[in-house]
Structure formats: C-alpha cells, structure tokens
Design a protein that fits this description.
heterodimer; A: alpha/beta; Rossmann fold; 4-stranded parallel beta sheet; globular; B: alpha/beta; 7-stranded parallel beta sheet; 14 helices; binds zinc ion; glycosyltransferase activity (chain A); DZR_2 (chain A); Phosphoribosyltransferase (chain A); transferase (chain A); glycosyltransferase (chain A)
C-alpha cells in the first residue's frame, strides 16, 4: 500500500495485537494522518467552532434563532487540509475523498441521526460543475449510509470570496428549491466558514416543509 | 550489442508516442491557417481549443488522440507517460462509462478515459529566419568556445549532445552561438530547467542577448501564454503542454531529476521534439545513466572542466569531527567559524536536515537559516546576497543555481545520506565563483568519510587536472 497523499509506502509492523486481525486498508501513512486534526475538544454546540468551555460562540449568539439548527464539522482547518482540499476540489483528484472516508463515516454514525433523514449535498452552479466534473459535497454524501436528495438548485455563482463579510451576509439567496420536503434534512458540504451558504439552503428547505435541518461538514474554517 | 540495446531502450518513449501519433503525419493542407501560430506544437485539451474546433477537426487541421489508453488490464496516460497503475483512479464521470483518470498529471488539469488530446496537424508555423540574432558581445574562454562550437554542430546535425560543464563554467554564454544558428534557420527552440527561479533568472539575460526573437517564459504560476513564441523558456513540467514542437531542445540540470524513476520528463521530452531534432543536456554532475552513454560514445560529450574565469575549482577539505552527533555546533566547526569571522569572510553552511539547520541558527549568533519549507526564504537569500548577514545556514535547496560572488562553504555532517556525490559537487561549486575571489574554502565536516564525499572530491580533482592539461 502507498499513501494516497504523499505516495510513501505504508509498512505495517506485525505484532501480537494485530496478528489475528484482518489487514486494514490503510489510506494515509502515519505522517500524513498526524496532520489531520479531528475536532474533539470543547466547541460551540451550534456551529462546531472551538470555544474555551464549549459555550455558544459569539457569532451564534448574535444569530439567535436561525433556520440551520446546528452544524457539526469533522476537522480543524490547517495548511495540510487546505492542500488536500485544493487538489481534490480544484485540481479534480476525485479519489482523495477516500482520505476522509473512515472518519467521516464514523462520526456520522455516532450522531445517531434518524433513518428517516435525507442527505442534501450543497449543489454547485452548472458552470462550476462543468468546470470540475464533480460536486465535492455529493462525493461526501455518497460515503454515508442515508438516502441522498437533490431538491436545491444553485442560481448565483459561487464567486464570493472577494466580497466583504457584510456583503456576503446580505446577498440574495443563491439557491432555489424544486420540490417539497417532508423528511428531516442533513445538509452536506466540505467547509463551514461563515455558515451563510448553509443558512440560505436551510431557510429554503424549512419553507418547503423540512421538519428540521442540520449540517454535517468536513472542515470548520 | 549492448549499444543497440541501450539505444532501443532509450527510444521507448518516442516509440510509445509514435504509436498513438505517427511522426511525419501527412497533412493534406497547403494553405496557412490563422491558428497555425498559436496551436502548432501544442498538446491541447478540449477547453483550450478555439470555438470553431469542429471545422478544424473535420478538415483534419486537428487530430485527436485518446488521453488514456487501456491495453489488456493496464492503463497508460498519453499525456504524462504514466503507466503505474496505482496512479489511475476511477471517478463518477459524466461520460457514463467506467471512467478512470490519471493522478500523476492531475495537477496540470485532469485527463480521463473519455478525454482527448488534440494536436495540430495543419501546416506548421513558419518562424522568421533571424539573421545575426545574438547581441551579446562578450568573449568566451577557450573551453567555452570549444563547447560552443560543438553546440553549433549539434544544432546543424540535429543530433544529441551532453555538455558536461563544471559549476561556474558560464553555460548560458556557451549556448549563444548555437541559438543564433537555430534562429537564423527559423527553428523553434526550448530551454527547459527543473526550477522556476532559474527560468526567471535566465529570461532577462536571453532577452537582452536576443532582442529580435520572440521569447516566452512559462512555469507554474506564471501568467504568460505561449501564443507561438520562437524561444520557450520553461520548467520541465511545462513540456506536458507540447507535442512535436521543437527543433532544438536544451535541458538544463538534467541530473536534478531521478530521470530513470519518473518517466514524465523523458516521455514529454521525446514528444515535445520534432522527429528530426537537436537535444542538448547541460549538467555539472551527470548521473550514471548519462555517464554510461557518454562512455560508450552513444551520447557525444563535450567537457568544460574549467570555470569561465580560468581558475581551478576549490577542492573540498575533509575535517573529521567526532562530536558532531553530540553537539549542535561541533568544536571543529566552531573554531573554523571563528577564524572566518576574524578574516571577515562570509559563509554558506549546509546542514543535512531542516531541524539541524534551525538548531544551528539558534546557537550561532548573527546567523540566519533558509530552507525549502520556509516561506520567507527568498528574502533571506537576498539579505545574505546584499551582505546584511554573514552566515546563511541552509539545507540542500541552495546547492544548485543560486550563486554568491565571494563566500566560503562548509557542510556539516557531510557523510549524511542526503549529501550524494552530485549534491556535494554542486555544493563545492558554490565557492570561488567570482574572478576577483576565485579560491573560496570548501570544508566537509564529518565523522567518517562517505563514498559520496570521496567520489565528489575525486571528480573535482579530475576536472581540475583536465583543465590544466587542455589549457596549455
Ligand atoms: Zn502520506
Ligand atoms: Zn457557533
Ligand atoms: Zn497522466
């Protein structure tokens, strides 16, 4: 086996503890694994931002009641993940999604989400989808054991990085919705930064009948 | 017999590409197309084609070949030459089939089983014949002019040539006559080098030497587009964008790659050349594969054993220092540094690892360290160059290319694995670069000399001997 990120050969040493276990399919080498930091410590219960004692963070306090009930993120953002995400998403190295597979699935199972719920990956605009060839949120959703639905459509383009925070907070909803929803929804996206995109999506889903909307994201930016 | 075998082996990349795109492809067109300039010689992806691609394809101005081919159970990437199966991965492509893409070259834009590569097959672009293009008026040393003549011959004879020139031989100037000849005949030329900073450094030099030739510089992160320049300066990765483009190709520091381990460079080099072309390798420290070919006369070779200023290369001195694993700054190194300080000499110190470099910096007052993972390294190198600091500690990243006029060089723990023969020769080559101060000190601190150290010293001595003999 070779590490999916750095291509170093993964050598497993045999000892009494793993002798009788089935060999596991390792994706990353030890060195690369250490670069990925799972969010484990105290964090804001609504948005997963790390806080001192697990209290509500400043932003969430200010938001008050919001359509997105809560967000759960898996990893802390760092340079390593930035590089992995860039190669995966922008360069189109699809298979890198496997880097996250084990953790992403494990944490999801621990959430004990109702079997009734559906996964809704955040869509890309047609333009962006044509450029990349795949939607990273869909790739993430595909790893999870629940049904996926695609009721949302993206009408405004994703290009927003140059706008100020205020602009981002007040722009129009970039999504439209096509159908009504009766199941609880888990939104899936790669990065939670301001939460604005997910709030917009949650608002529409609630209006279309979703009894509850939360989000499960890979990285807390 | 062995020679034929090696020739056959070396031709494998050419054969592989010829199998998907036959050389001397018969193009049925006499008339010129407005696209010839920007498209000929390129290896294009769908999105790089002009809007009337369909007409061009229909009229056979463009030929398309599959990006990835499958033979039996194995995939092969026709863009980067990759055949290692773990670098092919499947993905849910819109094409509907069981689609596989190449991870090896995904950084340059993804190609998969359903994508095509496009090659211009219309009339090739005709470049102007630029007479007496070279505006450089300097003078070559005796050795430089010998090499220069051989390069001109190789350009004329469309042959291969290894220019084995010591660090500081002045290789850029040796190329000028050959380039002038190429441009006089309307040839298209590429100079490829492994590092982007070399491209940036060479560009102004070539621009002032060849003011009437169109030059474009391409490297990862450069915004320049090649709209059909006669002279391309590029990093070796950029060769992935070319096919059957160049009459003359010069590959600088060819030993900086594990040429045998990664087929990307030899494959894309073979493809970027026209079927009849000149290929020139430049290096101070050729690896074994090239040495064997040179030795068997399979690869014509010209030596430049002398620096442009005519002084011999500084020969490294070995300095045993058995406390170098125990102390961060071994005693011998400390004494040497103090001496240098007293003599007002500036020092470039090589450490085997980044960690070690940082430790040294912490213990030697007035020093700075620069290494590959240091975002501020450009700035630190500049500070050392402008003599704001007298001691720069670095890892092997500074072994090549970067030159400082008047310094002494030391290697700490020179028998460490990271310092192979080539690296040590290159490191020693940092000293004594300027004609005003041609004999810098080179010291290898070690706790047991390695073969690489001994070989490096031998090869430097050999070059000096060669230079002595020839100079008479
Ligand atoms: Zn790794
Ligand atoms: Zn919060
Ligand atoms: Zn490839």
């Amino acid at each position: 086996m070779h590490c999916l990120w750095c291509d170093q050969e993964i050598i497993k040493d045999l000892n009494w503890n793993n002798l009788f276990q089935l060999p596991r399919n390792e994706v990353l080498c030890e060195g690369c694994k250490e670069e990925m930091h799972l969010l484990k410590g105290p964090a804001c219960p609504k948005c997963s931002r790390e806080t001192d004692e697990g209290e509500l963070c400043h932003d969430c306090e200010r938001w008050g009641e919001a359509p997105l009930e809560r967000n759960l993120s898996l990893y802390r953002y760092n340079d390593f993940l930035k590089d992995v995400i860039a190669k995966w998403k922008y360069r189109g190295d699809y298979i890198l999604v496997d880097v996250f597979k084990e953790d992403f699935l494990k944490r999801f199972k621990a959430l004990k989400i109702s079997k009734e719920a559906v996964l809704v990956p955040i869509p890309l605009s047609e333009e962006r989808f044509a450029e990349r060839g795949f939607n990273q949120s869909e790739a993430l959703a595909r790893m999870l054991p629940l049904e996926t639905a695609n009721p949302l459509r993206r009408v405004y383009s994703e290009k927003q990085s140059k706008k100020s925070r205020y602009d981002r907070m007040t722009t129009n909803n970039p999504f439209t919705i096509r159908t009504s929803i009766t199941h609880p929804v888990v939104l899936i996206d790669d990065i939670y930064t301001t939460g604005r995109t997910l709030q917009h999506a949650a608002k529409l889903l609630k209006e279309a009948g979703a009894p509850s909307v939360m989000s499960y994201t890979l990285i807390r930016g | 017999m062995i020679k034929r075998l090696i020739n056959w082996w070396d031709g494998r990349f050419e054969r592989r590409f010829s199998a998907v795109f036959p050389p001397n492809f018969n193009n049925p067109h006499d008339e010129n197309s407005p696209y010839a300039l920007s498209l000929s010689g390129k290896l294009l992806l769908e999105h790089q084609l002009p809007d009337d691609r369909h007409t061009l394809l229909e009229n056979k101005y463009l030929i398309k070949i599959p990006a990835i081919t499958k033979k039996h159970f194995d995939y092969a990437c026709n863009r980067c030459g990759n055949r290692v199966q773990r670098f092919f991965a499947s993905w849910p492509c819109g094409c509907g089939g069981a689609c596989v893409y190449c991870r090896k070259c995904v950084q340059m834009g993804r190609v998969s089983c359903c994508s095509y590569l496009y090659i211009w097959s219309g009339q090739l672009v005709g470049f102007p014949r630029v007479e007496r293009a070279c505006a450089w008026e300097g003078e070559l040393s005796w050795y430089q002019s010998v090499a220069s003549e051989r390069i001109v011959e190789a350009v004329d004879g469309q042959s291969h040539l290894l220019v084995w020139a010591v660090c500081g031989a002045g290789k850029t100037e040796m190329l000028f006559a050959g380039l002038e000849r190429a441009f006089a005949e309307g040839k298209r030329v590429c100079l490829a080098t492994p590092r982007a900073d070399v491209v940036r450094e060479l560009r102004p030099r070539f621009e002032s030497a060849f003011p009437n030739v169109s030059i474009v510089a391409r490297y990862g992160g450069s915004e320049e587009v090649d709209e059909g320049a006669q002279f391309l300066l590029a990093t070796t990765h950029q060769l992935l964008y070319y096919a059957r483009a160049f009459d003359v190709m010069i590959i600088d520091e060819v030993d900086a790659f594990p040429y045998h381990a990664d087929p990307m460079l030899p494959y894309s080099t073979a493809r970027a050349l026209k079927p009849e072309a000149t290929l020139i390798y430049l290096t101070a420290t050729p690896r074994l594969d090239l040495r064997i070919r040179s030795h068997l006369n399979l690869l014509p070779t010209v030596f430049v054993p002398q620096r442009f200023h005519g002084h011999p290369l500084p020969v490294p001195v070995f300095h045993a220092s058995f406390d170098l694993k125990k102390r961060n700054v071994p005693k011998a190194l400390k004494t040497w540094l103090i001496e240098k300080k007293k003599a007002d000499r500036r020092v470039l110190l090589f450490a085997p690892t980044i960690e070690k470099a940082e430790k040294l910096k912490g213990e030697i007052p007035g020093s700075i360290s620069a290494h590959s993972e240091d975002p501020d390294r450009e700035n630190k190198i500049r500070r050392f160059r402008q003599e704001e600091v007298d001691l720069l500690i670095t890892t092997t990243i500074l072994e090549r290319g970067v030159t400082f006029p008047s310094i002494d060089v030391a290697v700490l723990d020179a028998s460490h694995d990271v310092f192979d023969e080539a690296a040590l020769v290159q490191i020693a080559g940092r000293a004594g670069r300027s004609p005003e101060d041609p004999d810098g000190d080179v010291v290898f601190f070690h706790d047991g000399a390695s073969d690489a150290m001994v070989n490096a010293r031998d090869s430097i001595r050999k070059m000096n001997k060669l230079a002595e003999k020839g100079g008479e």
